[in-house]
Design a protein that fits this description.
globular, Sulphate_adenylyltransferase, Sulfate adenylyltransferase, alpha/beta, 13 helices, ATP-binding, about 375 residues, about 35% helix, Rossmann fold, 7-stranded mixed sheet
């Protein structure tokens, strides 16, 4: 099986014995409240999703990632995993000491061993990672709202409880075990933040013609208005897999994380995360992790010509359409028929049908999936 990024799958979940000890110590530690989205990153760090990171990045790694798309060690990495605080909060925290990290209900979830406190340039972060400063971009908004001081150091998660959609959430260790149980030597990861349409299905099945299995891994977390809700995406994929996919070659798990909409930079991050889950291949299609025309349609594929050391084979696919002459979905560039024979497939078009409570045509969406989407009164964020 493919090795995790950096060679070792990180596990920062406390044993039962250590948990009791740390909970006792936490009573006298300074506290920081993590919002729900940073708490997801905290879990991703603990479970090894972000291997080789063992905690929130220190300044050297932060600057190297932002400027060079790699960690200070030279290993490919594209988006820094950070914990931001106000200057007042930072002043009360001592380097070398432990900090109790709580959820918004003030329950201690973990510990940060504070190694560094440092400032950063929001402008450089926006320019290098997102390549724009336009506040209409949700990733730029995220950076703009960040507090001015970052904390770096290793973390420990106290509770192995999977607080988000536990029935559908597998850690990297668990997906690796699942792939091995199914005897899947090669697996292609598929990133999505949307309910599935026929274009997604065509790409996933194209990947299945090249590898043993496909790993469908939708993002669960804060998204932009108009995106499908988490529970809707999960239910839609369950219907699609049940009716149209080979059960022994398809693995589904949610990934709790906030979308950054960083286009090419985020595509690199997605490839590394799927590698840590045991994927040998990663699917990158049209406008992967993009938004609003900020990035070229295939910029997220082209970045892998520059960032070559992810250790994952990138499957690059172009636009899919339904061809009336072929009577099936096709990659447009592979079909001999003109656009007058093609039905354009897009997530925007699917959302329009569902928002109008209209059944989309089978060229766009499988009927079983459409029925699930239409069963929700409010399917959108």
């Amino acid at each position: 099986m493919i090795a995790p990024h950096g060679g070792k799958l990180i596990n920062r979940v406390a044993s039962l014995l250590d948990r009791k000890k740390l909970l006792g110590e936490a009573k006298t530690m300074p506290r920081l409240v993590l919002d729900n989205e940073i708490l997801k990153d905290f879990h991703n760090l603990a479970y090894g999703t972000y291997s080789p990171l063992t905690g929130f990045v220190t300044q050297k790694d932060f600057e190297s990632v932002v400027r060079e798309t790699k960690l200070a060690s030279g290993l490919a990495w594209s988006i820094p995993i950070t914990l931001d605080v106000t200057a007042k909060q930072a002043k009360g925290l001592k380097i070398g000491k432990k900090i109790a990290l709580t959820d918004e209900k003030d329950t201690v979830q973990g510990i940060l061993n504070l190694e560094e406190k440092y400032s950063f340039s929001k402008e450089e972060y926006m320019d290098k990672v997102f390549t724009v400063r336009n506040l209409d971009h949700p990733g730029v908004q995220m950076v703009h709202k960040m507090k001015p001081v970052l904390l770096g150091g290793p973390i420990t998660l106290l509770y192995d409880d999977k607080p988000w959609f536990a029935d559908y959430y597998m850690t990297p260790q668990e997906t690796r075990e699942r792939f091995q149980a199914l005897k899947l030597s090669t697996v292609a990861g598929f990133q999505t933040r949307n309910a599935p349409h026929r274009g997604h299905e065509h790409i996933q099945k194209a990947a299945l013609s090249e590898v043993d299995g496909v790993f469908i891994h939708p993002v669960i977390g804060e998204k932009k208005p108009g995106d499908f809700k988490d529970e809707v995406i999960i239910a839609a994929y369950q219907a699609l897999i049940k009716n149209y996919y080979p059960k022994t070659r398809t693995v589904f798990s949610v990934w709790p994380v906030k979308m950054k909409y960083a286009g090419p930079r985020e595509a690199v991050m997605h490839a590394i995360v799927r590698k840590n889950h045991g994927c040998t291949h990663h699917i990158v299609g049209r406008d992967h992790a993009g938004i609003g025309g900020y990035y070229g349609l295939y910029a997220s594929q082209e970045i892998f010509d520059e960032v070559e050391d992810t250790g994952v084979h990138i499957l690059r696919y172009n636009e899919v359409a339904y061809c009336y002459a072929c009577e099936k979905t096709v990659f447009q560039k592979d079909c001999p028929h003109g656009q007058d024979k093609h039905y354009k497939i897009s997530g925007t078009k699917l959302r329009e049908f569902i928002s109008l409570k209209k059944m989309p045509p089978q060229e766009l969406c499988r009927p079983e999936v459409a029925e699930v989407l239409l069963s929700y009164d409010q399917p959108f964020v």
